[in-house]
Amino acid sequence: MPRPIDRTSVAGKEFPATDHLQLVVLGAGPAGVAAAVEAARLGLRVMLVDEHPVASALMGIDVPWMFGERMTASVQNQPRMLERIVAARPELEQAFEVGVDVRLGVYVWAAFVTGPTSRALPCRMLALADETQSWLIGFDRLVVAAGARDLAVAFPGWDRPGVMGAQGFAAAIGLYGAFAGRRVVVLGAGVTGLRCVQQAREAGIEVAAVVDVAAAAHEEFATHGVTVHSGCAVRGVEGGAEVEGISIVPVGGGAAVTIACDTIVSALDTVPNVEMFDLLGCAMAFRPEWGGHVPVTDADGRCSVDGIYAAGDCAGIGDAEPRDPALAASSGREAARAAARDAGFAAPAPARTIRTHGGDREARRRHWLQVHAGPAAALTICRCEDVTLRDLLGVRPPRYLSYDDAKFAGRDVRTLAGDGPVNQDQVKRLTRAGMGPCQGRRCREQVQTLLAMQGNQPSGSVPMPSYRAPLRPLPLSVLSAHDESAALRANWTGWFGIAPQWLPHWEKVPENPEYWGGRIFLDAAK
Amino acid sequence: MSGHVVVIGGGVTGLSTAWWLRREGVAVTLVERGIVGWEASGRNGGGATHAYSPLFREEQRLWPMMDELLGYPTEYQPQRIRIALDPAQLEQYWRVTNLAVQQGFRAEALDAHALKELVPWVPDSVAGGLLWHFGGHANPQRTVQAYAWAIEDLGGTILQHTAVTGFDLRGDKVVAVQTDQGPLGCDAVVIAAGPHTAQLAAMVGVTVPIAPARAEMIVTEPLPLIRHGGADGNGLYGRQTLRGNLAYGGGPHEWLELPDARTPKAVNSPVVRSLARRLHELFPKVAHARVIRSWAGVVENTPDGRPILDRLDAPANLVIATMSSVGFGLSPASGRAIMQLVTQGRCDFADLSQLTLSRFAGLPTDWQARNGWVPWSPDGAEGERGPARADAAGPLSASGQAQAHS
Ligand SMILES: Cc1cc2nc3c(=O)[nH]c(=O)nc-3n(C[C@H](O)[C@H](O)[C@H](O)COP(=O)(O)OP(=O)(O)OC[C@H]3O[C@@H](n4cnc5c(N)ncnc54)[C@H](O)[C@@H]3O)c2cc1C
């Protein structure tokens, strides 16, 4: 007897895929390109997907990096940007040569794998999209080489246009060649700041100064002849609609100094871009020495979910010296070899890359937030949802609601912690911090640190808030399933198909157990 | 009633029950395995329009007062608009409308023009709609916390991160609830553990038929506010939140099994694209609205889709409370009804005679399989399906095809 199927459920539904790949590589940075090239050479059918050039509208809300509205109008010309990116990443040439299916300007916005709550899935799938539509592909293995994200840390004026992140800055001058500034102040006198200074110098952009709350700066700044203001806090950003300068003041007190600039690069640190690992259900760990949350992997980059591999910065960012693309490339090659071997292809054993890290970077982030967030309760923490430090730590409802302030007098993050460890997702629900269109990119890490600081806890004690699909904010028209299966459409119900659920309560449910489930009713209704 | 009531489950059903008990001055401890409202109660559509339920009238009476009664905002908004893209949808929405009208509630038919005045995003070809002067919606995440804080304000106790592991019986009564943090003495117990109600009831020898399923939703960036946020249709339920986001769900669910006392993290599926499609069809004028999140939750379903709200004969001080997947909106009313079952053995404001557990006495043991309410996988396999392997699937093709990039 065939098993009865609930037709209003996902059982038996098809989700048309345009292709099925043995290996997909997410991210065409040095790690991703090396992974794709290596895997193709080893005989796998490989697709390499990268979102750049991204839509200028996304750049406008700091997705995927903090562009700070400092991109020239040229980014609106996507065909030209595509050429530019291919030129900026010469290693892509190799990928084309060895037959990798290269997709640029394509977002990977979700991954679907089978698990305890998704058994009905026909196969592992990735959801892709460009500017006009989305589609699905099947895949066996995935190397995630999604790189790093900007670390956003608050200071007075950080939410102004003209304040960008280290990754956004690097992309603006390198990948896109579309930086709209001339004179920058770099915040952060560590390796990330140092890299920004080097990049700026190479591109002929003036660096007015480097500022950090820490007393000590990376020694290499001296060789660049750039002024470093150590032990200084940001007092404010000067200017009207445009940034005209930054005002800084010694942490211990003293006279404020204003430095003229048109752009401020917030370069305290970067964080591994781990959204895809979380979506896939990979085990994660908080490793401050690697820059934050990272996937748990074996030495070859295998994640806890079968067939998922991590390569490059998204696996954890070393901070001991400016990042070396060769190191990332070798981690990409290793992941590709591991994937090839796991798929049954003859491949050399991965040669393990030794990565270095520079100790606890969380301490630097805390120091920064202590100095800037401490005294300034009105400081905005979540820009999309307009959540201030006071709102966040006081677990206040959003401004659009009226509420009884007296009721909240005795309620804050600490009292919430009295009922169990502070959970960032719970605070997010209450305050909306992290719930906006930038998808938490500009506040996730600092909220974690602030919550931990408030509870006198190590930052790792705050569970990582979940990442959700779509991993990029994409329009309804793009996400829309234009290719939806006829069976899915025909059996669509608003809420289950349990017929007697919708009978008025004064009507008794017929005493037929087959009817109870609603199947017979559905047949009769057709 | 004197004595101590233990409420198991910090979803809306348990929270509302504990709150109502405290309002009556009853000593109450609510036990929640994780954080309050973490499961279905914090992941639902927020709809509060259940015309077919015996608790409908009370649901409608209470919601407009809830912010004031609880002391914290729930984002409750009255009224609902149903939008029909074609005549078949319109007919379907009329059926539910008539149910409410029969009970004395008011509804208005909207022609395409009137509908566009209220919801400017609908397609020009819209068939029509209905404006309900009843029903409404609230923010589930704010509501669960409001219940929890209100319970604490009234002196009730909430034990989070505490899981119930068993019961001590003496005679026909439960005298203690065992938890992983130690025992809790009790004079009465309410099991309101959502999909896990069945497993807990089984510990005292009571069979409660519940099938768990996964359901999912999507949410967009904020848009300018329309007049009545509770505007839905085209096979979707949902609302524009007070912040302006569009939060909508519907479509195929997935039946699950719960192998142990935990609820597995519910994931999204490719169905999110179908939700986007229907929302795009419903509101083509905001096709540009960006989807910024999706989520899924695990819901509980009884065989006939109706709640089980029942004070048992044995154990005599036990109330079973599960809402069969429409429990958020009804929660102000369900908690009050459950409170009355605990304190006086019967509900005096609604007829719960259709909601007894005994109605399932003759249920065949394989009822879930008969309806296909069981996990399903394409190959019938039980376990996880990993990636294809060369040894299992034979040698894999090694053709690296060159394809033009788009
Ligand atoms: C996507 C989606 C959309 C929905 N839309 C709507 C809607 O628009 N309107 C509506 O009215 N309803 C809706 N629902 C249904 C509604 O959310 C549920 O019916 C309702 O939340 C059930 O509440 P509950 O308190 O009974 O159960 P739950 O919310 O499941 O709570 C049960 C609690 O018990 C706890 N628990 C379990 N076992 C133990 C144990 N051993 N010890 C201690 N604690 C335990 C769990 O941790 C959980 O917090 C929707 C549901 C979903 C998933």
From TrEMBL, chain A:
Any keyword Mitochondrion?
no
Record's keyword terms, sorted: Oxidoreductase
- Domain spans labelled FAD/NAD(P)-binding: 22-328
By its UniProt entry, which SUPFAM superfamilies does this protein fall under?
A: FAD/NAD(P)-binding domain (SSF51905)
Oxidoreductase: is it a keyword of this entry? yes
Q: Which Gene3D superfamilies match?
A: BFD-like [2Fe-2S]-binding domain, FAD/NAD(P)-binding domain
- Any single Pfam family the record assigns to this protein: SO_alpha_A3
Which domain of life does the protein's organism represent? Bacteria
Using the record's annotation, list all stretches that form the SoxA A3 domain.
411-481
Q: Which InterPro entries match?
A: BFD-like_2Fe2S-bd_dom_sf (IPR041854), FAD/NAD-bd_sf (IPR036188), FAD/NAD-binding_dom (IPR023753), Metab_Enz_Cyan_OpOx_G3PDH (IPR051691), SoxA_A3 (IPR041117)
> What molecular functions are annotated in GO for this chain?
oxidoreductase activity
This protein's name: FAD-dependent oxidoreductase
Organism listed in the record: Limobrevibacterium gyesilva
UniProtKB/TrEMBL annotation, chain B:
Spans annotated as Disordered: 371-406
Q: Name one GO cellular component term.
A: cytoplasm
Q: Which residues form the signal peptide?
A: none
Key words, A-Z: Oxidoreductase
Gene3D superfamilies to which the protein is assigned, alphabetical: D-Amino Acid Oxidase, subunit A, domain 2, FAD/NAD(P)-binding domain
Q: Per its record, what are the GO molecular function terms?
A: oxidoreductase activity
Domain Rhodanese: residue ranges: 5-47
One protein family per Pfam:
DAO
| Keyword Oxidoreductase assigned | yes
**PROSITE patterns noted in UniProt:** RHODANESE_3 (PS50206)
**PANTHER family from the entry?**
SARCOSINE DEHYDROGENASE-RELATED
What's the protein here called? FAD-binding oxidoreductase
Taxonomic source organism = Limobrevibacterium gyesilva
